[in-house]
Amino acid sequence: MSPAAKNAPGSRRAELLALAARLFADRGYVSTTVRDIADAAGILSGSLYHHFDSKESMADEILTGFLDELFGSYAEIVAEGRGARETLEEVVVVSFDAIHRRPAEVAIYQNEAKHLMGLPRFSYLADRNAEFRKLWNGILTDGVAEGVFREDLDVELVYRFIRDTVWVAVRWYNPDGALSARDVAERYLGILLDGIAAPQTSKRRNRG
Fold first, then answer.
1. DSSP labels for 105-122?
2. Which among 39, 41, 44 is positioned nearest to 19, based on CA atoms?
3. Which of 15, 48, 65, 129 sits between 20 and 30 A of 195, alpha carbons compared?
4. Could you give phi then psi for residue 187, rounded to 5 degrees?
5. Structure confidence at residue 2 as a pLDDT band (50, 70, 90)
């Protein structure tokens, strides 16, 4: 049976992975034990080993599934060949949608990636980070070349700003709040692309 079939929504493995993801996100990967996961699932630790050989393998499946889906969505957007600004907008929307649908996985990736990258099994996380940087730098560089972003744009600085400000939203975004993920993404894009300063023309006129 393929990993996708074994972890299909509604399967016992999928339920256990979702439970583990919430515990890893809330308590931290290091602080969460196999027994914690088993207790939360209402089973014995030995029963959990019928499905997974270790806590590490659970974290691996959680992150692999999440990142494959996320980067697959990014690849589809880029393949559509839109202009740089529209591509950036869609990638931001998809990122906030991931925060909405898979907050535990996002939190694990944000909080635990640095630690997990020190383990051989998670070496792919460094590759994903490099892929993410390449994606954003490419969009921003294309935007400068197209004339839709400022010609003096510091691409690396803007990439870091976008990366940090988008994903930190997992700490405060409320899926049940008044604003949907798309609402938040659109307001974020308004700040990112249009700024927060009021137009200066009227102020200059008043001074005159």
1. HHHHHHHHHHHHTTSGGG
2. 41
3. 129
4. -70, -40
5. very low
Residue 18's closest CA among 65, 73, 56? Answer: 65
C-alpha dist (Å) from residue 93 to 57, 86, 100, 115: 30, 11, 11, 28
Inter-CA distances, 45 with 62, 106, 110, Å: 19, 26, 27
Ramachandran area for residue 163 (φ above 0: left; ψ -120 to 50: alpha; else beta): alpha
Q: What is the mean pLDDT of residues 111-124?
A: 94
- At 39 the pLDDT is 93
Q: Write out the two tokens for 80.
A: 């559509």
- Tens digit of pLDDT for each residue in 20-59? 999 999 999 999 999 999 999 999 888 898 899 999 999 9
HSE of 35, CA atoms in CB hemisphere, 13 A: 1
- For the cut 90, the answer to whether the pLDDT of residue 206 exceeds it is no
Residue for token pair 């990993």: 3
In one-letter notation, the amino acid at residue 74 is Y
Cβ–Cβ under 8 Å, residues 159 and 133: yes
How many helices (H) and strands (E) would you count in the chain?
A: 11, 0
Decide if pLDDT at 1 tops 50.
Answer: no
